[in-house]
């Protein structure tokens, strides 16, 4: 609420500006408890680097088997989750009719799983970081995120398609970044979201159709541009044609002009690591796959360690609040859904309809789940063994959570058959994860 001193009544223009700002904030931030018409299912894929992407792959595989993937209305993703989400935008994937009989999506293995394993088997972080040392990069503040985009495109060439020109089937895909000028969520939405070209923007700067030359891979790179590894991805907002945004009430024109001159987009997980804000107010069902780092308690003695812990608390608190709000809405019956994460216990055998044999086939014990929780957040190369363990874990815990908390979402009955049986043994999987928590300066490959 605005307060005005004696003799200074609010002007009509101030009232209008205040109303516009509050309306913009309400539109962007109304949460899962908002009572609005709801329809369809949204899948949210969190950030967490290649670790999260591989974890999400396992979840996507199981959701496909259960007939859920083919009936999604929206996929909202940030950072590592955006890698999987945009692989699901492949034009050759065969999506079932969402109004027809439940069916699986055709082409998941060859068009999503195989390219993801190739991509996560490469170190795309170090080449991007080293690019800033080259003379031609001096004076280019976003060179690291631009090189990251080029590195991603080397493995996924079709991501070089302009976002506005990409045509495909399946759900709307929303790729989130953090716009650093106003500190809000920026969205890259493909042509299936808003015909005929899609849209980009946020509720403070406004929205527009994606400009020519803005590639799918640019959206992925912006969503993954986590400091200090990568500088924010920059766009010239003056050329985008953004409309509908609302500045701060007391903002000087030159401040907004400066933000527009170089719109800086950092990792989407900095603001909303679950990609929830884009979907939680108007979908009937929300499923959240969380491959983000697990917050752990620790004693700190040095000033640097204490500062890092405080920053971690701030980031974790915001995400925890979102999840608690969402789960409270599940409990209140405002919407349906389920969440799962790296630390979700593998309790398949406790789910109705599953016998102990199914649980034994899929479970990793608590000690191994703890090792999975410690796997690094990075865009460095992941070995095949690490890839398999993470994918298998995502498959099992997503199945357990959906069946327990959102059984109405299940459209097809399919036996639990976790991928990669060669890593089902606890000792074997533990050996493959040995040292997985370490981040090396120049990368592993």
Structural notes for this entry:
This protein is of the alpha/beta class. The chain has a single domain, classed as 3-Layer(aba) Sandwich (Cytosolic phospholipase A2 catalytic domain). 37% of the residues lie in helices and 12% in strands. The chain is built from 13 helices and 11 strands. The chain has helices at residues 12-29, 49-65, 80-87, 108-120, 125-130, 143-155, 216-224, 253-261, 303-331, 356-362, 366-373, 384-405, 426-432, and strands at residues 41-45, 74-78, 172-179, 184-189, 199-202, 206-208, 233-235, 243-244, 263-267, 285-290, 336-341. Strands 1, 2, 3, 4, 5, 6, 7, 8, 9, 10 and 11 form an 11-stranded mixed beta sheet that branches. Strand 10, helix 9 and strand 11 form a beta-alpha-beta unit. Helix 2 packs across helix 3 (80-87). The relative contact order is 0.16. Mean pLDDT is 86; it is low at 1-11, 23-27 and 348-361.
């Amino acid at each position: 609420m605005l307060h005005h001193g004696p003799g200074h009544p609010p002007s009509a223009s101030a009232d209008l500006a205040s109303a516009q700002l509050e309306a913009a904030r309400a539109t962007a931030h109304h949460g899962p408890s908002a009572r609005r018409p709801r329809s369809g299912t949204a899948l949210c894929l969190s950030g967490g680097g290649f670790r999260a992407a591989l974890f999400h792959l396992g979840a996507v595989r199981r959701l496909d088997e259960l007939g859920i993937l083919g009936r999604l209305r929206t996929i909202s993703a940030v950072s590592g989750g955006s890698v999987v989400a945009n692989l699901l935008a492949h034009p050759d994937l065969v999506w079932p009719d969402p109004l027809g009989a439940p069916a699986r999506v055709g082409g998941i293995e060859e068009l999503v799983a195989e390219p993801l394993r190739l991509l996560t088997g490469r170190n795309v972080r170090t080449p991007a970081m080293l690019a800033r040392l080259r003379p031609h990069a001096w004076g280019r503040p976003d060179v690291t995120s631009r090189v990251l985009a080029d590195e991603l495109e080397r493995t996924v060439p079709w991501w070089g398609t302009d976002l506005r020109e990409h045509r495909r089937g399946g759900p709307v895909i929303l790729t989130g970044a953090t716009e650093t000028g106003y500190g809000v969520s920026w969205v890259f939405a493909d042509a299936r979201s808003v015909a005929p070209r899609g849209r980009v923007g946020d509720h403070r700067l406004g929205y527009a159709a994606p400009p020519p030359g803005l590639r799918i891979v640019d959206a992925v790179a912006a969503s993954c541009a986590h400091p200090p590894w990568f500088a924010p991805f920059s766009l010239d907002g003056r050329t985008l044609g953004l409309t509908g945004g609302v500045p701060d009430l007391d903002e000087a024109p030159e401040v907004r002009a400066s933000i527009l001159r170089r719109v800086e987009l950092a990792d989407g997980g900095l603001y909303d690591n679950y990609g929830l804000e884009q979907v939680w107010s108007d979908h009937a069902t929300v499923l959240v796959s969380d491959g983000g780092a697990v917050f752990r308690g620790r004693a700190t003695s040095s000033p640097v360690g204490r500062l890092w812990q405080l920053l971690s608390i701030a980031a974790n608190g915001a995400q925890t609040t979102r999840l608690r709000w969402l789960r409270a809405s599940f409990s209140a019956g405002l919407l349906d859904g389920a969440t799962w994460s790296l630390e979700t216990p593998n309790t398949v055998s406790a789910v109705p309809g599953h016998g102990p044999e199914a649980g034994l086939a899929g479970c990793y014990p608590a000690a191994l789940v703890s090792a999975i929780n410690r796997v690094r957040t990075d865009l460095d190369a992941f070995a095949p063994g690490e890839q398999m363990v993470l994918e298998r874990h995502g498959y099992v815990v997503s199945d357990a959570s959906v069946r327990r908390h959102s059984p109405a979402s299940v459209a097809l009955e399919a036996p639990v058959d976790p991928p990669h049986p060669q890593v089902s043994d606890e000792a074997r999987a533990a050996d493959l994860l040995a040292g997985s928590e370490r981040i090396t300066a120049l990368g592993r490959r």
